[in-house]
Write a structure and sequence with these properties.
The complex is a heterodimer of chains A (124) and B (514).
Chain A: H1 2-20, H2 25-46, H3 68-99, H4 109-112, H5 120-123
Chain B: H1 7-21, H2 27-52, E1 58-61, E2 72-75, H3 77-100, H4 109-125, H5 129-147, H6 153-184, H7 189-196, H8 205-222, H9 230-237, H10 240-263, H11 275-297, H12 301-321, H13 325-355, H14 371-386, H15 392-403, H16 410-441, H17 450-459, H18 463-481, H19 483-498, H20 500-508
Antiparallel strand pairs in B: 1-2
The chains are: A mainly alpha (124), B mainly alpha (514).
C-alpha cells in the first residue's frame, strides 16, 4: 500500500508542477488543484498508513489506532484549497475578460507602463 | 486566562461581516465602522504591549484544551510588538484610503481590510504551526481581494499572478507541515521545540527537509532571493494604499522565520544547527543587490518603491540570518522602521499619482499643483528608506551593521548594505529630481486655461490626505528620537525570543495563567 500511496503523491505532484509551469490560466488552475490533491494524500500518509483501525484509543486492551490529527488537517486543507480554487477561477476569469489574455506571467510591458494592444499578447 | 489576547482576531472577524453585509451600500457607514474598528484594534494592541512588557509569556488556550492537544495563542513581547505595528499601520493606511476615496473605487474594501487585519494579527499571535497556515490563508484570501481592488487590466493580471504564486506557496507549506508532523508527531511550536532537542543527528534528515521547506515558504512571503520575483509586479500594480498595507505582509514572512527558526530550529538544536544561516545569508545578500539594481533601473515610481521594499527585506533578513541576539535586536528595529518607511513611500506615491492623472512614470511633466509639498514628503520618506540621517533608517542600518561583526560575515554584510544603500540613494535622488525638480523648469503648457485649473484644484491633496503620510514620517522621526528606550524593549524581546526553555514552560507547563 505504501508503494501505491507514494506513487499517487508522486504522479499527482509531477503532473501538477508540469501544468503550473504551462503558465496559462486553465492548465495552472488544474495543476494547482492536482497539487492540492497530492498534498492531501501526503498529509494522510504523515499519520502513518493503517487500514481498518478506529481513530480513537481503545480502553479494552492494546488495540492499535489510526492517528486522527492528519485527518483533521486534511479536512481543513481540503476546505481551504477548495475555496482558494474558487477564488482563483474567478480572478482568472476576470483577468481574462479584462486583458484578453490567459497568460500568468506579466509581459514586458508592465515595467515600461506602455499600453499593449490586445492580440499582441498572443504573439509573444 | 487573559481573554484580551484573542481580541485582535475576534474584533476584525466580527466587524468584517457586519461591514460586508449590513453596510455594503453605505460607504460612509462602512468608513466609520472600519475606522472605529482600527482605532479599537490599536487600543487593544497598546494594552497587549503593556501587558507583555512585564516579560511573562501569556498563553490563551482555545476551548481550554491543554497545550499540545489544543490550539494556543501565545502573547510575548514579539507578538505584542507585531500586533501593535499591524494596528498602527492599518489605521494610518485606512485613514489614507478613506481620505483619498480609494475605498470607493470597488466593492467591499473595508470588509476585506478588516479580514486582512484579522489574518495578520492571528499569524502574529498563534502558537501552532498549522494554525499559522490557516491564518496565512485568511490574510492571503483577503489580500487577493484587496490586490485587485479597483480592477483594471494590469492589476487583474498582476493579481492573477499573485494568487497563483501564493497558492503554490500554500501547497508547499502543507507539504512542509506533513513532513514535520511525520518526523516529530506534533505541530505545536513549544512542543516542537521540546522534541527537536532530543532528535539525534542521524535521524534528522526528515526534520531538516521540513525546516528547509518551511524556510522556502516563509521566504516566498518575505520575498527573499530565489522566490522574490512576484513582489515587484504585485506591489507596483496593487492600489497604492493596499501596497502600503502589504508592507506588513512581507514582515509576516520575516516574523515566521524569526519565530519558527529561532524557537523551534534555533541555535543549539543539534539536528538543524547552522542550516538556516547557510541559506538565508547569501539569499539576503542577493536580495539586497536585486533591490538596489531595481531601484536604479525602475522607470516608474511604484516599481521603484517595490524594489526598495525588496532591498529592505534583504537588509532585515541579513540581520535575522545569523540568529544571534544582538543582530536580532537590530533586525527587529529595522523591521519596525522599514514597515513604516515603505508604507509612507507608497502613500506619497499615491498622492503624487493622483495629481499626475494616475501616471507614475519617471518622466518630466509640467509641475503638479503641490510640487513643493509632495517633494518634501517624498524626500522625507525616501531618506528614511535609503537610510540617511536623521530618520530611523540610518540608525536601523547602523545597528544592523554594528551587530554583523563576526569574521566571515562582516565583509559581505557591510559591503552589501553600504553599496546597496548608495545605489538606492542614487535611484531615489534621480527619481525625485525627475519628478519634482526638472518639472519646475518646464514652461506651463500653453493651453492652461480655466478647466485645467479646476482640475488641479480638485486633485490637490487636502489636509486629511496628507495627514497619514505626515503621521508616518512623524513615527519614523520618533523611532529615531526614542531609539534608546525602543532598543531596550527590543533587547528584552530578543532575550525572551531566545529563551526557548521559558517559552516551552509557559506554553506546556501548568502555570500558564489559569
Amino acid at each position: 500500500m505504501e508503494m501505491i500511496v507514494a506513487s499517487a503523491v508522486g504522479v499527482l505532484t509531477a503532473g501538477g508542477v508540469y501544468l503550473v509551469l504551462r503558465l496559462r490560466a486553465f492548465p495552472v488552475i488544474l495543476g494547482l488543484a492536482m497539487l492540492s490533491y497530492a498534498v492531501n494524500v501526503f498529509l494522510f500518509a504523515a499519520g502513518k498508513l493503517t487500514t481498518n483501525m478506529p481513530p480513537i484509543l481503545s480502553k479494552y486492551g492494546e488495540a492499535t489506532y489510526t492517528d486522527p490529527l492528519p485527518q483533521a488537517l486534511v479536512l481543513t486543507a481540503i476546505v481551504i484549497s477548495f475555496g482558494m480554487t474558487a477564488v482563483l477561477v474567478m480572478v482568472a476569469l476576470a483577468s481574462f475578460l479584462e486583458s484578453d489574455s490567459d497568460r500568468i506571467n506579466l509581459g514586458r510591458s508592465e515595467n515600461a507602463g506602455l499600453p499593449v494592444e490586445p492580440g499582441q499578447e498572443d504573439a509573444q | 486566562m487573559n481573554h484580551w489576547i484573542i481580541a485582535p482576531v475576534i474584533l476584525p472577524a466580527l466587524l468584517a461581516p457586519v461591514i460586508g453585509f449590513v453596510m455594503r451600500y453605505d460607504i460612509r457607514l462602512a468608513r466609520i465602522a472600519s475606522l472605529a474598528g482600527a482605532v479599537a484594534l490599536l487600543a487593544i494592541a497598546l494594552g497587549l504591549v503593556v501587558q507583555a512588557a512585564g516579560g511573562e509569556t501569556q498563553v490563551y488556550r482555545l476551548g481550554d484544551w491543554p497545550a499540545p492537544f489544543g490550539i494556543v495563542l501565545v502573547l510575548d513581547r514579539l507578538s505584542a510588538l507585531m500586533v501593535l505595528l499591524t494596528a498602527l499601520l492599518g489605521l494610518l493606511v485606512l485613514a489614507h484610503a478613506t481620505a483619498t476615496g480609494w475605498d470607493d473605487r470597488g466593492r467591499h474594501f473595508h470588509a476585506l481590510f478588516q479580514f486582512q487585519l484579522m489574518g495578520i494579527s492571528g499569524a502574529f499571535l498563534t502558537g501552532d504551526v498549522f494554525n499559522l497556515f490557516v491564518f496565512f490563508e485568511i490574510l492571503l484570501i483577503a489580500s487577493y481581494g484587496l490586490m485587485i481592488h479597483g480592477g483594471g487590466r494590469d492589476r487583474m493580471r498582476a493579481g492573477l499572478q499573485y494568487v497563483v504564486i501564493n497558492l503554490a506557496g500554500s501547497t508547499l507549506f502543507l507539504f512542509a507541515l506533513g513532513v514535520l508532523y511525520a518526523s516529530t508527531g506534533t505541530l505545536n511550536i513549544a512542543d516542537l521545540a521540546l522534541r527537536l532537542q532530543d532528535i539525534p543527528l542521524e535521524d534528522a534528515a526528515l526534520v531538516r527537509v521540513a525546516m528547509m521547506l518551511l524556510l522556502i515558504v516563509f521566504a516566498v512571503k518575505a520575498a527573499l532571493f530565489p522566490v522574490q520575483f512576484w513582489l515587484p509586479g504585485a506591489y507596483s500594480n496593487a492600489p497604492a494604499p493596499v501596497a502600503a498595507l502589504f508592507a506588513i505582509m512581507t514582515k509576516v514572512g520575516a516574523y515566521s522565520i524569526i519565530r519558527i527558526h529561532t524557537t523551534v530550529f534555533g541555535p543549539g538544536i543539534e539536528a538543524t544547527d547552522g542550516l538556516a544561516f547557510d541559506w538565508l545569508f547569501p539569499a539576503a545578500l542577493i536580495t539586497i543587490a536585486i533591490g538596489a539594481a531595481g531601484v536604479l533601473g525602475a522607470r516608474r515610481l511604484m516599481p521603484l518603491i517595490a524594489f526598495a521594499v525588496l532591498g529592505s527585506m534583504g537588509t532585515l533578513m541579513l540581520a535575522v540570518s545569523v540568529f544571534a541576539p544582538a543582530a536580532m535586536t537590530a533586525g527587529l528595529y529595522y523591521l519596525v522602521h522599514s514597515t513604516f518607511a515603505a508604507a509612507a513611500l507608497f502613500l506619497v506615491a499615491d498622492l503624487v499619482m493622483a495629481q499626475r492623472d494616475g501616471n507614475d512614470g519617471l518622466s518630466t511633466r509640467a509641475a503638479i499643483a503641490q510640487n513643493g509639498l509632495m517633494a518634501a514628503l517624498f524626500f522625507g520618506a525616501a531618506i528614511a528608506m535609503a537610510g540617511m540621517p536623521p530618520l530611523s533608517g540610518f540608525l536601523g542600518k547602523l545597528l544592523v551593521m554594528d551587530a554583523l561583526r563576526a569574521p566571515g560575515v562582516i565583509g559581505w554584510a557591510w559591503a552589501a548594505i553600504l553599496v546597496g544603500s548608495l545605489v538606492t540613494i542614487v535611484g531615489f535622488a534621480r527619481a525625485g529630481s525627475v519628478l519634482f525638480w526638472k518639472s519646475t523648469s518646464l514652461a506651463p503648457a500653453p493651453e492652461t486655461g480655466d478647466a485645467p485649473l479646476h482640475q488641479i484644484e480638485r486633485n490637490a491633496a487636502g489636509t486629511a490626505q496628507v495627514m497619514p503620510v505626515l503621521a508616518m514620517l512623524g513615527l519614523l522621526a520618533a523611532l529615531a528620537l526614542f531609539a534608546g528606550p525602543l532598543a531596550g524593549y527590543l533587547e528584552a524581546t530578543t532575550g525572551q525570543l531566545f529563551d526557548r526553555a521559558g517559552y516551552v514552560a509557559a506554553v506546556l507547563g501548568t502555570n500558564g495563567g489559569v
